[in-house]
């Protein structure tokens, strides 16, 4: 068996299962092995559980299987009634009618889950079925809980993975010196442990190994992209254009002292022969866009081109419109290039860019495609918010030998981290908001009282305002009870928002629909948008006065702060209501910080301090920057070491090092993940 073998060859994977696995982006054995548990349940602590406890693992018998119920909001609830010596309890599944087919009446199962008590009935939502058969002993171990979608079960993952691991031996792929130096366990052991941990100590060792591996290859890739670029860098000395004065006059407001200070710093950089390499950080709403436009304008007036990359199409569109409006009397040619730009238009734009017939190109990742060429690119601005899109940025930077680089972010990046991600970078801070900004009144409430939030939404809408509702998921995920855009939409459409125009919005929608929905919201046709965090970046609708965030406990505080920044953009008093599952003091503390502070930098700092202490030991499924097991901020200590080793390897002239380096680079070049096998 080879890690690149198709997943369909495994025993137990029929056409239907194959389709479902593919939906989870599992196509080959490697994908399966890298599908890590999102959490673990420590079974040894659940021993001797009974129905009086909150979390249980129990052997029980199926008494009956009830007929599915359809709720008012269109959900299907399936119920299986279990029985053991303590009594009776019900296992319930939402919208997963097939789950009940896993059970036979009078047969024995081992069930795990969290108990909910309501009016004398004991039930478990989405129980995990661990083993079947009366004689199966539950070994004392830590049970992996996989993220589940599309009808896949935890049992299936456990079986498939143990089948694979019994047939495969994974060879080492880090240099031995590194393994010895940092006392890392082998890759083979790490993978076995991640999927089947015997104790917490081993589990932590395995995680450390995988994180190291991931951050090491990640560092290698950044360094390789940069080394080419730095070698050839010489810079352009731009003049200060006289037209800047006219532009400043065309701006409909007065720039703040903070903005002026940062603009001065940027213009000094532009004048120098050396390339600018500057990060502008400023809280949400501090007015970074205009600073970027001024920086770009000066370069363009020197006869060079500018590229402005935004993280989403919605934002790119907005920046395009703002720039066109502001620069309309200044004889600048501006175009927009996004994934959704038509094929023909794309070709025309690319041709114009190459010939120098466009001065400013604004766009998304489409700008980094290989066939996008510039005639004389003078400045690259990336508005990456907190996404650390290092790879994309490096790729864009490689399109010009000596362009100035300006990166904008709303989340302060810890100094240590910025050093690794950006190298010798200068930082400018816009530390004051424009005058007249109001504080966004923030409240938090437990799920139990969420009706109050929606009643308040109605009253705002009746006053003529508009409302954002944010959920962590698009569609219901089968292993969690987090709110999804679809569920909330269905629920609200049938209750509070029966007579109110509401729309849904999420990242994977076709760009055309997204645009339509945003436009309808902007011009007031729809009153409510229910969305995922796509709403986070830069959307500007001054009439929106309320944001409700569901499962607020699931978001980072910096992210909540960014989200909240979507309201309070006009003259109306604005509010943010965080609906959270306040299970513990850490969550309460985090919500308190949101309520009491409106200083994005303070909030981010506090979040870093609190996080980590309460985190469970599973993996969050990342993916934004291709990192699966590690987090650049949380794992900064490991990142430092891995980065140091990667720097050494990059510079090494030793033959074996060169071989290892080339091999790793070959593997990761065309992959979206940074854990690779030999
Ligand atoms: P961010 O820093 O979050 O990217 P934006 O650049 O989007 O902020 O600016 C937010 C809003 O503030 C925009 O509507 C912009 O026109 C406005 N704005 C920017 N600077 C000023 C200023 N000095 N005075 C008043 N309004 C400003
Ligand atoms: Mg912005």
Please summarize what this structure is.
This protein is an alpha/beta fold and about 675 residues long. About 35% of the residues lie in helices and about 20% in strands.
Net shape = globular
Mean pLDDT figure: 85
Compounds present?
adenosine-5'-diphosphate, magnesium ion
**Termini separation (Å)?**
14 Å
> Structural class per helix/strand content?
alpha/beta
The helix content is: 25-40%
CATH topology of the domain at 243-430: Rossmann fold
- The CATH homologous superfamily of the domain at 243-430 is named P-loop containing nucleotide triphosphate hydrolases
Query: What is the level-2 CATH architecture name of the domain at 243-430?
Result: 3-Layer(aba) Sandwich
How would a crystallographer describe the biggest sheet?
7 strands, parallel
Beta strand count: 22
Strand line-up in the sheet with most strands: 12-13-11-14-15-10-16
Q: Please, how many helices?
A: 21
The parts where pLDDT drops under 50 for at least 5 residues are: 612-618
Radius of gyration: 27 Å
What fraction of the residues are assigned to beta strands by DSSP? 15-25%
Briefly, what CATH class of the domain at 243-430? Answer: Alpha Beta
């Amino acid at each position: 068996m080879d890690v690149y073998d198709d997943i369909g060859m495994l025993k137990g994977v029929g056409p239907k299962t194959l389709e479902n696995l593919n939906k989870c982006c599992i196509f080959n054995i490697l994908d399966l092995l890298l599908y890590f548990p999102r959490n673990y349940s420590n079974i040894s602590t659940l021993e001797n559980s009974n129905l009086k406890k909150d979390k249980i693992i129990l052997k029980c018998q199926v008494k009956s299987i009830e007929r599915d119920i359809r709720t008012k909001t269109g959900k299907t609830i399936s119920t299986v009634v279990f029985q053991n010596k303590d009594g009776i309890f019900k296992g319930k599944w939402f919208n997963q009618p097939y789950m009940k087919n896993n059970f036979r009446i009078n047969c024995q199962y081992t069930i795990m889950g969290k108990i909910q008590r309501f009016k004398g009935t004991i039930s478990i939502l989405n129980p995990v079925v661990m083993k079947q058969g009366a004689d199966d002993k539950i070994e004392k171990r830590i049970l992996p809980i996989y993220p589940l979608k599309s009808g896949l079960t935890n049992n299936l993952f456990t079986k498939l993975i143990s089948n694979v691991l019994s047939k495969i031996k994974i060879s080492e792929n880090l240099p031995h010196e590194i393994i010895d130096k940092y006392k890392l366990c082998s890759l083979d052991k790490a993978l076995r442990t991640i999927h089947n941990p015997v104790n917490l100590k081993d589990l932590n060792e395995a995680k450390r190994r995988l994180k190291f591996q991931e951050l090491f290859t990640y560092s290698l890739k950044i360094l390789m992209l940069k080394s080419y670029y730095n070698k050839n860098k010489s810079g352009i000395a731009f003049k200060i254009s006289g037209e800047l004065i006219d532009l400043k006059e065309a701006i409909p407001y007065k720039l703040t002292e903070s903005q002026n200070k940062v603009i001065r710093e940027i213009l000094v950089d532009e004048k120098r022969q050396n390339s600018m390499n500057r990060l502008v950080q400023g809280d949400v709403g501090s007015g970074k866009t205009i600073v970027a436009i001024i920086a770009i304008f000066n370069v363009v007036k020197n006869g060079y081109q500018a590229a402005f990359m935004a993280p989403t199409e919605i934002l790119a569109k907005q920046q395009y419109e703002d720039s066109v409006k502001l620069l309309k009397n200044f004889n600048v040619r501006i175009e927009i290039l996004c994934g959704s730009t038509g094929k023909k238009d794309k070709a025309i734009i690319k041709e114009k860019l190459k010939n120098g017939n466009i001065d400013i190109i604004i766009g998304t990742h489409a700008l980094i495609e290989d066939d996008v060429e510039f005639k004389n690119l003078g400045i690259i601005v990336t508005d990456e918010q907190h996404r650390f899109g290092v790879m994309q940025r490096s790729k864009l930077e490689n399109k010009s030998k000596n362009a100035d680089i300006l990166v904008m972010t709303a989340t302060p990046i810890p100094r240590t981290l910025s050093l690794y991600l950006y190298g010798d970078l200068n930082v400018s801070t816009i530390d004051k908001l424009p005058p007249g900004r109001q504080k966004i009144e923030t409240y938090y409430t437990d799920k139990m009282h969420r009706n109050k939030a929606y009643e308040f939404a109605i009253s705002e809408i009746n006053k003529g305002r508009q409302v954002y509702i944010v959920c962590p998921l698009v569609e219901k995920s089968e292993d969690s009870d987090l709110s999804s855009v679809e569920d909330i939409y269905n629920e609200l459409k049938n209750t509070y928002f029966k007579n109110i125009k509401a729309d849904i919005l999420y990242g994977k929608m076709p760009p055309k629909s997204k645009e339509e929905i945003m436009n309808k919201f902007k011009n007031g046709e729809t009153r409510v948008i229910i969305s995922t965090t796509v709403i986070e970046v830069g959307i500007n609708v001054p009439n929106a006065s309320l944001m409700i965030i569901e499962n607020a406990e699931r978001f980072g505080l910096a992210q909540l702060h960014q989200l909240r920044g979507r309201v309070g953009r006009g003259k109306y008093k604005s509010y943010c209501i965080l609906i959270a599952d306040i299970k513990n003091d850490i969550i309460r503390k985090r919500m308190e910080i949101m309520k009491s502070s409106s200083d994005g930098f303070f909030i981010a700092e506090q979040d870093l301090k609190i996080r980590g202490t309460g985190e469970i030991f599973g993996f969050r499924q990342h993916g934004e920057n291709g990192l699966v097991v590690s987090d650049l901020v949380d794992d900064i200590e490991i990142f430092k070491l891995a980065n140091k080793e990667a720097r050494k390897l990059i510079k090494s002239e030793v033959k074996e090092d060169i071989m290892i380096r080339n091999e790793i680079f070959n593997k990761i070049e065309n992959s979206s993940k940074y854990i690779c096998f030999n």
